Request: fold
Amino acid sequence: MTDLTTIAVIDLADDLATERLGSDLALILKPGDVVALIGDLGTGKTSLSRALIRALADDPHLEVPSPTFTLVQAYGGRVPVSHFDLYRLGDEADIEELGFEDALETGAAIVEWPQKVPAVLSRANIVIEFQTSEDHDGRRAAVAARGHAVQRVTRTLEIRTFLAGIDRAQAARRHLTGDASSRRYETILSDGADLVVMDSPRQADGPPIRDGLPYSQLVHLAEDVRPFVAVSRALRDAGFCAPSIIAQDLERGLLVTNNLGARTLLDDTGQPDPQRYRAAMEFLTALHLTIWSRDLPVDDASQHSVPDYDARAMMIEAELLVDWYVPDVLGRKASADERDRFAEAWSMAFSELADTERSLVLRDFHSPNILWQPDAIGTSRIGVIDFQDAMIGPTAYDVASLAQDARVAMSPELEASLVAAYVAARRKDNPDFNAFFFERDYAVMAAQRATKILGIFVRLAVRDGKPNYRRHMPHIISYLKRTLDHPTLSAVKSLYSDWGIVEKH
Reply:
């Protein structure tokens, strides 16, 4: 156990403190993890196990008996988990008959009395040793980990310390479904208010891929929480519905915000609700009529400069299709000639945007990131939560992001009606609004967004082990088929037809 890293020694004053530690660990548990619990009888091993299992199942009343006699008990949940108690194990070789290795193929394991089987203890990547405290009542837990678990365990304990620093030391934390990024979210219940914790530590830059810069800088991705804080503040100051920052630790990448709820633009059956989508398009109209400053304050001492959504960023994003989707679908890399055709086709399309209308672009303005506020009126019915990558770019981009929602199948009729409603609203405000140029800009931005998303969804599946995003790819392709008929995109369509992404005509 010499390769273990001791992370913290925590005083546990009572059973509730032990249960909080268990639920905090549940938030970062992954399949393949082995949590080893060491300590004498009555020191809190089963209490921690029970809390961890209940947190994974999101059921505070789940019956979790001690597996003292059965030796193992399996549970479902966000991460399937098997609870082992090896105190009565007769022969350490019997561990295989209990299905230890099988359990780790799809889930995690919690093991009490792991020292009975040295191979299990050496396999554990999270180890907690319980001791009675000599200087006060209660117990003490020494928390250690190895490998990638060190960072995860350190982070969940750091969040608990952060909450303690804002007078929420005993807040109950629950997992909240995150997004496709490295950000992670939790909810906490504090003083009767349901709040959201954003866990977004600063990300290390990847390797340079062009002009000496990494991908994140080329496409202007937020590297910490400061852009989120700045854009949220600007949106709220302008009268839009965005999370208010209740507490923050900018250096550690931790925020606590109010909770805008869980209702999106989809109805109870998971289908697009036309009324809500029309309200979201009204939101975009108001957003694009607002005059935005490029430099937005983060706090009294700093500000965030909103970057430009320029042709280089658009091209780097679009190239994700060549880098990921094409090899995945064609079973080969794109040739040098194909890459040149791709770059030339898209360069011509982007050159058409030289005179496009520009405003604040939220970047991911679609159903998962738009929260319906049923008791509000006007644009306040639309709550937005994912805008840390906002840029100054073509207004048509967010219109396409909404009307061709990447997470659902938007019918051609609904798409057309939403775009028409946006154009009508803009022309009502400004009779000189050029619908012809907007149609062109919309086609370019819609096709660029669909192109990059196909690449992103494959990358998520292949590189990041998130295959569920593949299920959205058929309707992304259907969006491309609708959009590539615009004459500005004829060269792009020709190449995509050769690749088989859309049909030849």
Observations:
- The radius of gyration is 26 Å.
- The chain has a mean pLDDT of 93.
